[in-house]
Amino acid sequence: MSRRAAHSHGEGDPAAWAERAFRELALRGHRAGGARAAVIERLASEGGCLTAQELAERLRGGTRTVGAASVYRALAALEEAGLVRPADLGPGERRYELVHDDGSHHHHVVCDRCGRTIAFSDHGLEGAIEGVAKRLGVSIDAHDVVLRGTCRDCSG
Predict the structure, then answer these.
(1) pTM, two decimal places
(2) Distance CA 124, CA 127 (A)
(3) What is the CATH number of domain 5-155?
């Protein structure tokens, strides 16, 4: 089963995220080159929404050879620094999302047939979540919305 991610989001600035990631990791004593740099650059160029395995596969044929263990270490450093967050989208579907300074983010639709993951943003949904928080008298620090169904390709 081929799992692929489609992006229909435009929030956040990936270049600004990458600059912040390099700066923050340097402040934490991490070197600027190598596998971490390749992971940061690939995450930024794709806007996140990748699994560790997808990252390793996409980095395999690039200008830098990056092993899977290095990808996992880089993701752990980025997560510890608050620069990425994992989104669990089902069994074996932990995708890493960029954490933007402005709080922008997206949600996902997952096709139950082919596993395709479609990222989306929706201001109305964000407003509804804020309304629920207000009604319940809670402060929401983070939220994930995963919708499941059948994609256009599989239902056609």
Answers:
(1) 0.75
(2) 5
(3) 1.10.10.10
